[in-house]
Design a protein that fits this description.
It contains three helices and six strands. The protein is α+β, with helices and mostly antiparallel strands and about 110 residues long. The chain has one domain: Glutaredoxin, CATH 3.40.30.10. Strand 1 and strand 2 form a beta hairpin. About 20% of the residues are buried.
Length: about 110
C-alpha cells in the first residue's frame, strides 16, 4: 500500500492511497473509523471506482487531529463534520450526501 503525505498549513499527515479504476480527480477522504456514514462514503468511492487517499481522523495523535480539524475548517469556512471529501484540493464536501458527492465528482446525470 502506498502512503502519501498531505501538507496543510500546520500539519503533515501520512495516509494510504486506496486504488480505483477511474482517473481525473484528486480525492482525500477524511473519515472516522467507527462512523456509519463514513463507511457509506467509502463504499460509494469503491463502487464509483475513484482512487482516494484515506485519513482516519480519530486515529491521529490528538494534537494532529485538532490541527487537522482547524485547517479543514479554515479551508471550508465552517465547522468540519465527518466524513469530509476534499476534491482536487479546492472543494470540500461535508457529510455523506450522495447527490452532493455526485455533483462534486462529475457524476450527476442530466435530469
Amino acid at each position: 500500500m502506498a502512503y502519501y503525505t498531505v501538507m496543510l498549513e500546520k500539519i503533515d499527515v501520512q495516509f494510504p492511497e486506496v486504488g480505483g479504476t477511474r482517473e481525473g480527480k484528486s480525492l482525500i477522504f477524511f473519515s472516522l473509523s467507527t462512523c456509519v456514514m463514513c463507511k457509506k462514503g467509502i463504499r460509494y468511492l469503491e463502487e464509483t471506482g475513484f482512487p482516494y487517499r484515506l485519513v482516519y481522523v480519530d486515529q491521529l495523535d490528538p494534537d494532529e487531529k485538532d490541527q487537522l480539524k482547524e485547517e479543514l475548517s479554515k479551508k471550508c469556512n465552517m465547522r468540519v463534520v465527518f466524513p469530509a471529501l476534499l476534491v482536487d484540493e479546492n472543494r470540500i464536501v461535508l457529510g455523506f450526501v450522495p447527490h452532493a458527492w455526485d455533483e462534486a465528482l462529475g457524476e450527476a446525470g442530466d435530469e
